[in-house]
Design goal:
The chain contains one helix and 18 strands. It is mainly β and about 250 residues long. It has a four-stranded antiparallel beta sheet with strand order 4-5-6-7, with no helix packed on it. Strands 8-9-10-11 form a four-stranded antiparallel beta sheet, with no helix packed on it.
């Protein structure tokens, strides 16, 4: 748990548990069920908690977790700040993954376990009145291969907010990259005039990862670097682990 250094969390039987003991050696914690306490929303939550993500400590010191359930609910909070249901995003279909934006506060991206879109990749943004705006961003996600599932999603931690937003999704046919904003020709170059329609989300296959199931994509979070080290890692089904290092500056957008 990056908000509580030295503490652990795990999902079990549809609930999120947090370690409470000081001795967190695996043999001590796992053997003693009293070392864990459930920190789920409980009231109003439906289904099982199936995925979770952390809000960046750079953006907020208090623990803030994002939870997705098997019925499509997305929750924000913790015992310290209280729980808020953000949406019934899946309308009965499970949440596969949640990708927080580590640079922009209160914005997350959610992958829903639907076999077709639009509606399986969503952006959630908190508004000034504290309500949350939910938007489908996969209307133009039409890859040449048939994508049955979007399993995981992360936000590119190396692109400044002024230059747009990029997300990477792990699917059953490799990794795809979605981009919204103005393309950059090369690092530190002025942005070019975008063609008509560039403000729509554009999607392309992200080369380097094999054309297999990508079960998980994670951003390397390091508080000293303000959670923007630029490193992402992907795990695949039977083809090993892959790393993409975006920490060498902003790369051209293809």
């Amino acid at each position: 748990d990056p908000h509580r250094p030295g503490n652990l969390l795990h999902l079990q039987n549809g609930l999120l548990f947090r370690a409470t003991g000081a001795d967190l050696a695996p043999h001590a914690v796992l053997a003693d069920p009293d070392s864990w306490t459930a920190v789920d929303p409980f009231w109003g939550k439906t289904g099982n908690t199936v995925t979770m993500a952390f809000k960046s400590r750079v953006l907020e010191e208090q623990p803030v977790y994002y939870l997705g359930t098997s019925t499509g609910q997305v929750w924000r909070g913790s015992p310290e700040v209280g729980w808020t249901k953000l949406c019934e995003c899946g309308n009965g279909v499970a949440v596969n993954s949640i990708g927080p934006d580590l640079r922009r506060n209160e914005r997350i991206f959610v992958a829903i376990a639907r076999g077709t879109g639009p509606g399986r990749i969503k952006q959630l943004t908190r508004l000034a009145d504290t309500t949350w705006n939910v938007t489908d961003i996969d209307g133009t996600f039409t890859p040449p291969l048939t994508i049955g599932q979007v399993f995981s999603i992360v936000v590119d931690p190396a692109i400044p907010e002024t230059q747009g937003t990029a997300v990477y999704v792990g699917t059953d046919q490799g990794v795809y990259r979605g981009f919204l904003g103005r393309p950059v020709v090369k690092p530190f170059a002025a942005t070019v005039i975008p063609p008509i329609g560039i403000e729509n989300w554009t999607w392309r296959r992200s080369p380097g990862a094999p054309n297999v199931v990508v079960t998980e994509i994670m951003v390397h979070q390091i508080c000293q670097a303000h959670d923007s080290s630029g490193v992402m890692r992907a795990s695949t089904y039977g083809r090993g682990l892959y790393e993409l290092n975006r920490g060498q500056g902003v790369l051209p957008v293809a």
